[in-house]
Amino acid sequence: METSLTVVLDACVLYPAPLRDLLVELSYRGVIRARWTPEIQDEWTRNLRVNRPDIDPVRLERTRAMMDRVRGCLVTGYLPLIPSLTLPDPDDRHVLAAAIHCGAEIIVTKNLKDFPNGILDGYGVQAQHPDPFLFGVLGVGEEPFCLAVKAVRSRLKDPPKSVEDYLLTLEQQELARTVERLRELADLL
User: What residues does each domain of the chain span?
Assistant: First the structure.
């Protein structure tokens, strides 16, 4: 399944491994076309290093490098747009600039207040929390979405997770509506 749905993933949705793994897997499989910038990568990895010094920096860099191998994921050439943009938090302008530059329809973020629709509408972009975003993607293609979930879950070895354990992990990522639907599809996970 190839999609034309292009989204920019904000650092806050790449920071938690369970959410990052699912979003990247969906992109790898062509269910969505996830994009990010080196600056977004820097932000989530920097914050993770500060908050989780127990995580091996080599492992973190390997994750980042593997993510950057997803076809067409890296956005470049967006920097000239930043000075012309206005957002409540000026440090988020690079995310909007990337979305505009790559033609993304959606910025997937938990920080909706930082991306007001009144501003984003002028650029043809909207901000969505990961739960309604993923619920919508699931509604468009249950089978490829479930295959992505199954692939992510199968890589969890230390410890392995049952379907319900994995869904509880996703629920902790504020994905209640998505998880509710996935529970109905548990035989496919």
Answer: 6-129, 135-188
Residue at 189: amino acid letter: L
pTM, two decimal places: 0.94
23 and 9 Cβ atoms separated by less than 8 Å: yes
| Rounded distance between C-alpha atoms, residue 151 and residue 156, angstroms | 9
Q: Could you give the CA distance from residue 35 to residue 132 in angstroms, rounded to a whole number?
A: 18
pLDDT in single tens digits along all 189 residues of the chain? 566 799 999 999 999 999 999 999 999 999 999 999 999 999 999 999 999 999 999 999 999 999 998 889 999 999 999 999 999 999 999 999 999 999 999 999 999 999 999 999 999 999 999 999 999 999 999 999 999 999 999 999 888 899 999 999 999 999 999 999 999 999 999
Q: Are the CB atoms for 12 and 111 separated by under 8 Å? A: yes
Q: Does domain 6-129 have CATH number 3.40.50.1010?
A: yes
Question: Strands across the sheet with 126-128, in order?
Answer: 33-35, 6-9, 106-108, 126-128
Q: Is 103 left (phi over 0), alpha (psi -120 to 50) or beta?
A: left
DSSP state of 115: S
